[in-house]
Amino acid sequence: MTRIGTPASRVDGRAKVTGAAKYAAEFEAENLAYGAVVSSRVAKGRVVGIDLRDALGVEGVIDVLTHENRPRMARSKKAYEDDIAPGGAPFRPLYDDKILYNAQPVALVLAEDWETARYAASLVRVDYEQEAHVTELESQRDEAFDAKNSPKPRGNAEKAFAAADVQHEAEYWLPIEHHNPMEMHAATVIYEGKGKLTIYDKTQGVQNSQAYVASVFRLKQDDVRVISQFVGGAFGSGLRPQYHLPLAVLGALALKRSVRLVLTRQQMFTFGYRPGTIQRVALGAKSGGTLDAIMHDALAMTSQYEDFTEHVTNWSGALYKCANARYGHKLARLDLATPIDMRAPGGATGVYALECAMDELAVALKLDPLELRLRCYSDRDQNEGIPFSSKKLRECYRQGADAFGWDKRNGAPRSMRDGSELVGWGMATGIWEAMQQKASARIVLTANGHAEVACAFTDIGPGTYTMMAQVAADRLGLPLENVTVKLGDSTLPQAPVEGGSWTAASAGNAIALACEGVRTQLVRFARKVANSPLADAKPDDAALVDGRIVSKQDSSCSVSIPDAMRAANKERIEQEATAESNDDGKHARYTHSAIFAEVKIDEELRIVRVTRIVNAVAAGRIINPKTARSQILGGVVFGLGMALHEETQVDHRLGRIVNHNLAEYHVPANADVHDIEVIFVDEPDEIINPLGVKGVGEIGVVGTAAAIANAIWHATGIRVRDLPVTVDKILG
Ligand code: MOS
Prior knowledge:
Oligomer: single chain
CATH class of the largest domain: Alpha Beta
Distance between the termini: 58 Å
Low-confidence stretches: none
Bound molecules: dioxothiomolybdenum(VI) ion
Shape: globular
CATH superfamily of the largest domain: Aldehyde oxidase/xanthine dehydrogenase, molybdopterin binding domain
Number of strands: 33
Strand order of the largest sheet: 3-6-1-13-10-11-12
């Protein structure tokens, strides 16, 4: 009855489909006021005048806040730094007259209802003194500065490249992308009086939001409670407190009333995004298909006020065997909001370029693309010169290729057909970090055999409630139904933001550790039972199985949990534990994947259909194969969006994002998604952490766009190096 490794439906599934699960903008309060944000119309300059008369004249409008009349906020820029703020000075909404990017908030209308607030927001007239802005990445190639986050070079890549039998060098472009979760960013701030606030926030980290609000508004941390029990998607957009949060708090403090603020879909394009990048990859190889040189340079964008950086290029050297490698990462300052992590930040970006380049190199070498990967396979992370804690990528290649039928591929482009459609098969490798952050969990076990697990992590959708219940059920020997999980409340035991695919490892190991503490206590109690069969047992001699404390040496010796607790006169056992990464720098910690994609392209219309994807993943132990599979499916769909649909378009004359809606910013819809097969390769890992868990939230997206782009080349013979691959680029 082990629960780890068993497919389980979401324990919160019923609450979600019946609507019982409440999201940030759904909480009610007495005398609730509604906010609407007014966004700047210029990209750079300052506000020189705000005319509020028309807005204030609308019946039902309570007040309009601007930088001129808002309640006090912290002056120091430092006070606005959250847990994962990059270097620089964070944006301070409604702080002063400065305009740092187009559509930044410039006023907050507060009204008795949402429609009135929105209408009045359209009547706020703002005058600006405009300055010249820059929003185009390419124009800033020469102005860009070194991001100083590249791995150390090794060997002499320039020389090795120049001397290589076969060279491939090209530039790969990725546009800005926006996360576009279903749930808009929102906060409902309950004004409790006496400086106390309860905030229902759409966030990936309740304690991060709590600390931010306390810091910005000079409140006592304990007087700010942030709750986020359900999140309708975030993908990184909720890692940092976005401006909806401080603005909702400003409104509540100004009115001394509870306030709800929901951003519009258009306003979902007015903060973080995946930065656009231009990457140059140069690969030099021997004619036999081994790599001599890797050079990977990235140019990415950041704002004028923060230095947002990702790890874009380091994957190249970690993934493949190559004695000579050199990396570069430059940042260009643009008059846009600061980018933010978006699912597999940097990895989705860098591996796209690397894996397209590897495909092109395979063509130049007249090698099967999978065969090239195998010839360059590395059992060590060569950036660090250390082995992997585990790496079953070879198995991913083998099982993925088998399931896909890769051996039936004819390598020549335009060689495969299905009626009027060209058929293309492409593949790519994926890699992502396996991280663990310090986190705490508390378990309360009651004598009736029920356990409650509590942790401040927020379940942003991957199935954290379910996964945590499984770990506790497994380690406590209880049925899954006997475990309840409390999450997403800043008053619960410490947790960082949910992101980076680290929650399963971070929370899972904390829970497992807390369970050990519970077991230790139970064994001690069991010894007190009259004529106890466990009279001499030490904690490690017993396991918890089926509601009993059972001797590991002799399973006929056991005591039931209720009997043990009765013997000790205990109604409940409470145990809290904190787990941290055991990373001593001796092993590289990564998840890997092999993605195989089939596209079918109408020869005349050039419409691309991604008809089949097989994604074989090695991610250590999988706690819940059902929800983990969903994570990979979602990641693959993200990659499909990257490959074919997603592109944030900026009108550089205005410095303004123009396709800020779901009609013009395309994400894959149901009709775009066909057959996706997920394989989890068995990957025992005794090193990485006690549970052997690596996390699966992001690996599904990494490499997927490259596999599809490579398949499109195979179908058409046309190599597109700037995503998304839209029809116009493959008309041929
Ligand atoms: Mo993820 S981009 O760390 O939410």
